[in-house]
Write a structure and sequence with these properties.
single chain, 395 residues, alpha/beta, seven-stranded mixed beta sheet, four-stranded mixed beta sheet, 17% strand, globular, binds pyridoxal-5'-phosphate
Length: 395
């Protein structure tokens, strides 16, 4: 329940959670719900994942924080494992997703000045319409969502917004001052918007031709959600930098990173960037375990396999007229409601009554992102509750 001491920057569903396990959470009254949001994909491996919790507990008894003024014994193992997983050369650890994005923006601008020789104050970074990259002032400066953006000016300059998924518009925006591109391989917050198959490879090719850096924000799409370790693999796209976060913290704490080319991340020198908590031993221990879990491929495979029935079922709802549209990949879906029948918020309230927690986005869309560790039975149970709720909604 809203407390008068709590700033009202969220409008949560009227449920107060007290416990979690796997795909399920229990509220203070003892009612159990299937968690179909999974912390916006921060809980890809479920609530209280036994391996991750054991790792965290062990590290809590060992060493939790050193600051980067001193190294800790898990920094190298974590960076090695993450670079191995990402198939890349270097990483820089931060905490929240927004900090990873800020780090990538700074890296691209720094490279623009030092390597490309673009004048200070002139480097431009291209971003996409409908983007979501976090909540800091620089990031919301180029948000096209009025709710996230309006009222926070003056805004950070140096960003150019192009329509998402439109390669010709992207090419037209590539003027000589452009040093970098920041883009989501699939737009999560916008409602799981999947661009045309040739879009990301096309963006990559144009970036190479124009000597522009490509950063993919895989904070929500990465780490197994789509059935691949990274969504970029779906189209064979090779970015220069990648932002990771959310599930990298194992559902326990914020852990984020930028991964990518050594000749770009190497341009940061002592003091030119940093974070008090970034790369702390507890975060490294958890991040390392997340890499090990993903290295096995078990949950990517589960997302792919469960994803087949998931998308078939959702498409069935569309074919029957219960939904206007569905977009899904792996265990990730955006479903669009008929505006005449009710809002996304209303559907989420109905789902909640039936024991499923989900989150609406942009009015008429509901995002579904169950933990990848969900069983077929539990997923079916959730989809049965969704079907009942949608039938209740038919108008
Ligand atoms: C959630 C998210 C972020 C921001 O992460 P925080 O940890 O909330 O700062 C950035 N980019 C994408 C694509 C996200 O989904």
């Amino acid at each position: 329940m809203a407390s008068s001491h709590l700033a009202p920057n969220y409008a949560p569903l009227p449920v107060v959670l007290a416990q979690g396990k796997g795909s399920w959470v229990t509220d203070v009254k003892g009612k159990t719900y299937f968690d179909a949001l999974a912390g916006y994909s921060a809980l890809n491996f479920g609530h209280l994942n036994p391996e991750l919790i054991a790792t965290a507990k062990q590290q809590l008894d060992t060493l939790t924080l050193t600051s980067r003024a001193f190294d800790n014994n898990l920094l190298d193992p974590f960076s090695d494992a993450l670079c191995e997983l990402a198939g890349t050369e270097m990483m820089l650890p931060m905490n929240s997703g927004a900090e990873a994005v800020e780090t990538a923006l700074k890296a691209m601008r720094r490279w623009g000045h030092l390597v490309r020789g673009v004048e200070p104050e002139e480097g431009i970074i291209i971003v996409a319409d409908g983007n979501f990259h976090g909540r800091t002032l620089a990031i919301i400066s180029f948000s096209t969502d009025p709710v996230a953006h309006d009222g926070y000016g003056p805004f950070a300059p140096g960003f150019r917004i192009v329509p998402y998924g439109d390669l010709a518009a992207f090419e037209a925006a590539l003027t000589p001052e452009v040093v970098g591109v920041l883009i989501e391989p699939i737009q999560g917050e916008a409602g799981v918007i999947i661009p045309p198959d040739d879009y990301l490879p096309g963006v990559q090719k144009l970036c190479n031709e124009h000597n522009v850096l490509l950063t993919l924000d895989e904070i929500q799409s990465g780490l197994g959600r789509t059935g691949k370790t990274f969504a970029r693999e779906l189209t064979g796209t090779e970015p220069d930098l990648m932002c990771l976060g959310k599930a990298l913290g194992g559902g326990i704490m914020p852990v984020s990173a930028v991964t990518g080319r050594a000749d770009v991340l190497d341009l940061f020198t002592a003091g030119t960037h940093g974070s008090t908590f970034g790369g702390n031993p507890l975060a490294c221990a958890i991040g390392l375990k997340v890499c090990e879990i993903l290295e096995s491929g078990v949950w990517q495979k589960a997302a792919t396999e469960l994803g087949v029935g998931f998308s078939e079922r959702l498409q069935g709802f569309v074919d029957e007229g219960l939904l206007i549209a569905q977009r899904s990949v792996g265990l990730w879906a955006g479903i669009d409601l008929d505006p005449r029948c009710g809002s996304g918020r209303q559907l989420c309230e109905t789902l909640m009554e039936r024991g499923v927690l989900a989150k609406d986005t942009h009015g008429l869309t509901v995002r579904l992102a169950p933990p990848l560790t969900t069983s077929t039975e539990d997923l079916d149970w959730m989809l049965d509750r969704l079907e009942e709720s949608l039938r209740q909604f038919v108008c």
